[in-house]
Each structure stands twice: as C-alpha cells, then as structure tokens.
Design brief:
The protein has about 325 residues and is α/β, with parallel strands linked by helices. About 35% of the residues lie in helices and about 20% in strands. The strands form 2 sheets. An 8-stranded mixed β-sheet has the order 6-7-8-3-9-10-12-11, with helices on both faces. The longest helix is centred in the middle third of the chain and has 18 residues. It is globular. The chain binds iron/sulfur cluster. Iron/sulfur cluster binds next to loops.
C-alpha cells in the first residue's frame, strides 16, 4: 500500500467528552493513514472508541487535539465551500439502515437525499435515471424505487444505504458496523457488494466492526483498537497469522471455528481482569489489567505504537519476546 497516495491522515487525534467526574477519553491519540482505494478494517470491542473515531472523520465531532488531514488539508481549517466538498467526498454507511432511512420517504427519494442536498441534478429525468443507475449498482431495480423502507429486508435496506452514499461519488466511505444487524448469509452478500463497488469505483473504506471473522474478507489492513488507542495495525494476513499484541490474540481466539475437531483442540486466550474506565485511564499500558504478560514496567509506562516489519505496528513493550502464535 505504501506506493498509494495518502487520502486521509489522522495525527494524534484526541476526541474527549466532558462527563460527570472528568473527561471521557473516547479517542486518545490515534495516528492512522487511509490510502486512496484502500480498505482499513477497524476492530475492537464495543465502547473502545471506534465509532467515535468514525464520527470524528465525518466531522461530526471536533477533536480536542490533533489533526484530521484530507488530501493533506486539515478539515478543521476548511472554508465553508471546502466543508461542503468534504461532506460530499466522505460518506457514511450505518449499522441500522432502517433507522437512517426516512420511513415516510420512498426508497428512490432516500437514495437521492444527498444528491438533492448538493443539487447535483436539476433536471427531473436525469435525477430519476441516476437513481435507477445507483439502485441497479447495488442490486435493486426499478420496481423498488417507489416502495417504502418497511417493505424491504435488512439486507435490501443496507443496499439503499450504500446507494445513498454512492450518489455522492465519494472517495472514502466510513462503514460503521454495516453488517452487524444482518444475518450471516446476508453479511457476505453486502461485503461482496462493497468489494465489487470498490473495484468499479476505486473509493477507500474504513470498515468499523467488532466482528473479526468478516473483516478479513474485505480489509487490506486491519487496525485493532483498545480503550481509545490503536494497539496493532498490519496487513490483513499478518493480523491473523503473525499478530503480536496480546489483545489482538484474545480477540482472534474468541472467533468460533466451524470445524468441531479443530475447535476442540485450539487454544483460547481468555481475558480476566477489569477494563479500566476511559475517564480514569491508568498511567501505563491500558491493557495491563487484563494482560497475562503484564509486568511492573507495563504498569509504569504506556507503550507507543512502534514499527516491527512490513509496516506492522504494535503498541506493546514485550512484542518481540512473546511467542508468535496464530489463533
Ligand atoms: Fe501486555 Fe505489557 Fe504488552 Fe501491555 S505492554 S500488552 S501489559 S505485555
């Protein structure tokens, strides 16, 4: 991926929220680059800050510190016209497409919502033919245009959500748990559709999910997030086969394996300990309270995200010492 141009760069991004008792550090110093046409999977347990990071990229939250650069420009230094362009080029797909669609609008109008806001088509016929083209691209057809969201299945509604994002001809789509609410068979269809659209249109994806099984199918690289920080990032295959961070290993070891013989024989890494409060983070490694390899040094200083090999980055003091095991 290194030869590809950086599209979006997060530099030491911190997104905090004032809560009773202090500041909730939802995103606590994230560095991440997404290249043109690349898919980065962002994984972690719920509450780790991944959705807040997605919304920070969408310019829905302003970070307290750090920079979000798009084509090298700070999105918080934009003039009004640049903001308008940015909100066109960076789109979002949501977990619950039903909640994001107006129940009183027909599907054609929902798909065209962004097009209408940005006045992309003033000619009614052109607008209609563009809606049809978009719906066809996501596997829907003319018969769906005048129907309402309640007449659609979850998978079909997610296709409408994708069509609505595509209408803006985006360069980056933040996919926030786009398949979590769908049946497993439908999940694969939506992932395959996203891959097909990326091949045809070349946009980048940030694919946010707590499910490590499906993210492998779509991601070029995977970033693992824990308590507001990225603790490991590497090529998709390296995350599965040469992972280094104990938290990544724990997440992977929780994925069920279909083969009962393999499932019975496999080692699992079960985490004990409590998750620290994001309002009151420890001074050392934030994973130390659950990590079976934690030492006193881990509790004293927080590990920085540092390079290993082939662009593989890990935030663990003991990454070189720990046995290399694939889960
Ligand atoms: Fe575990 Fe220490 Fe590595 Fe943190 S730095 S993940 S506590 S071994």
């Amino acid at each position: 991926m290194s030869e590809k141009k950086a599209l979006l760069e997060l530099k030491n991004v911190k997104t905090f929220f004032k809560v009773k008792g202090g500041m909730l550090k939802a995103v606590n110093g994230v560095d991440l680059t997404i290249h043109e046409g690349e898919t980065v999977g962002l994984v972690g347990e719920s509450g780790c800050g991944k959705s807040t990071l997605g919304k920070t990229i969408m310019r829905l939250y302003k970070p307290q510190e750090g920079q979000v650069l798009f084509d090298g420009q700070d999105i918080w230094q934009y003039k009004r016209r640049d903001v308008f362009n940015y909100t066109r080029q960076v789109q979002m797909i949501f977990q619950d497409p039903y909640a994001s669609l107006d129940p009183l609008s027909v599907i054609g109008d929902s798909a065209a919502e962004g097009m209408d806001i940005h006045h992309l088509f003033t000619d009614k016929k052109q607008r209609e033919s563009e809606i049809l083209r978009l719906l066809n691209q996501v596997g829907l057809n003319e018969s769906h245009v005048d129907r309402y969201p309640h007449e659609f299945s979850g998978g079909q509604r997610q296709r409408v959500g994708i069509a609505r994002a595509l209408a803006m001809n985006p360069r980056l789509i933040v996919c926030d748990e786009p398949i979590s609410a769908l049946d497993v068979s439908i999940q694969a269809q939506v992932v395959n559709l996203l891959k097909k659209l990326q091949r045809e249109r070349g946009m980048a994806y940030l694919f946010i999910t707590h499910d490590l099984s499906m993210v492998r199918q779509i991601s070029d690289r995977i970033a693992v997030m824990y308590l507001g920080n990225i603790v490991e990032i590497a090529n998709s295959e390296d995350i599965y086969l040469h992972n280094r961070h104990p938290y990544t290993r724990a997440l992977l070891s929780a994925i069920p394996i279909a083969d009962p013989t393999v499932e019975k024989q496999r080692k699992r890494m079960v985490l004990g300990g409590d998750v620290p409060s994001p309002v009151n983070l420890p001074k050392g490694c934030s994973f130390a309270s659950r990590c079976p390899y934690a030492t006193e040094a881990c509790r004293q200083s927080a590990p920085a995200l540092r390079p290993m090999e082939d662009g593989h980055l890990v935030a663990c003091h003991r990454a070189e010492e720990l046995p290399e095991e694939a889960y």
